[in-house]
Specification:
By secondary structure, the chain is an alpha+beta fold. 20% of the residues lie in helices and 55% in strands. The chain contains six helices and 19 strands. It has a 19-stranded antiparallel β-sheet that branches. Helix 4 runs antiparallel to helix 5.
Length: 346
Amino acid sequence: MKIILKIISLFLLILLLFIIYFSFIGFETTKFNNQIQNKISEIDDNLGIEFKELKLILDPFKFNISAKTLGPKITFKNKSLEIESIKTNISLKSLINNQFSLEKVEISTKSLEISDTISFVRSLYKIPELVVLEKILKIKGYLIADLKIEFDQKGNLKDNYSVNGFIKDTKFTLFKDYEIDKLNFIFNIKKNDLEIKDLKLKLNGLKLNSKKISSKKIQNEFHFKGDFENETVELSKENIYLVQKNFLSEIDIQKLKFSSKNNFSLRINEKFKIIEPQIISKIKINDAKILNKLSLEKIFPNIKKEISFLDNEINLNYKKNFLSIDGTGNLLLQKTKEEIFYKIKK
C-alpha cells in the first residue's frame, strides 16, 4: 500500500512540475505547424504563413495553450509580409477531442509598406474602405500594427476584429487638388469604425494637426467628424486659388497669412460624393490682401488698389450652400488703419 501511495505521490509531483514548467517556461515544437497553416488557408486560398517553431505556454485556468512564433512571414498572392510575431490560443478541449481549433490570433507587424498591408487585411475582410485606400488613393508610406481576430466554435472568423497601430511618412493625392504628405497618426480600426489620434500632415505644403478624427459606417455612408488646426502660415498662390474656388469665388485674394482651429463633419456615400459638409472655425488673420473691385473713390479718395485686413479675429460657419463670417479687427483701406466689425452671410 505504501508503495502505491509513493507511486501516486511521485506521479502527482511529476505532473505538478510538468504543469508548472509548461505554464511558466513552456515548450518549443513544430507539432501544430500544419494545422495552423491549414487554418490560415481556410480564410483565403491565397493566404499562407511560413514559420519554424512555436513556443507553447499552458494557461490551466482558461484551459488553453498560448502559442507564439517570432519572425514569421505571411504570404498573399506571391507577396510576403515580414511579421514581428504571431500569437494564438489553442483550445485544450479541441485537442482532447482530436479537433484542432484556434480561438483567436494576434499579429504584430514590423514596419510595413501600407499598400502591401492593405492587400493582406483586405484578404481577411472584404471592407469597402480598404478597396478605396488600395485602388483609388494609391497610398505610399509605412505602418506598424497589431491585428486581433477571433474564431467561433465552428472555426469561422468573427466580425469583432480590431487593428491598432500607427502610420508614418505617408503620402497620397485626394480629389486631384489636394496633396497629402508627411502624414503620421495613431489609429484604431473595428468593424464599421475608424478612430485617428495625434494626426500630423502637410496639405499642399500647409502643416495641419488634429487631436482626433473618427469615421463610422452607417448603412452605405461613411460619417466623418473631427478637428484640425494650423499654426500661422502664409498660403501659396495655388492654395489661395483653392480657397477662392471652394469658398470665396467672388473675392480676389492676393495674400493670406493666418492661423486657425476648426471642427468639421461630413458624410461620403458609396459613389464617393461628399454630403452635408460642415466646418466651424476660429481664424486669426494676421495679414490678408484683397484686390479692390469697389468703385468708392468719391467716398474714399485715397482708397488703395489692395484692401488689407490686419489682426482680424473671425468666427466662420460653413455648410452646404451657406457661409457665415463674423469678425473684428483692423482694416487698411486708405492711409491709416481703421477698427472694423463685420458680419457676412452668403
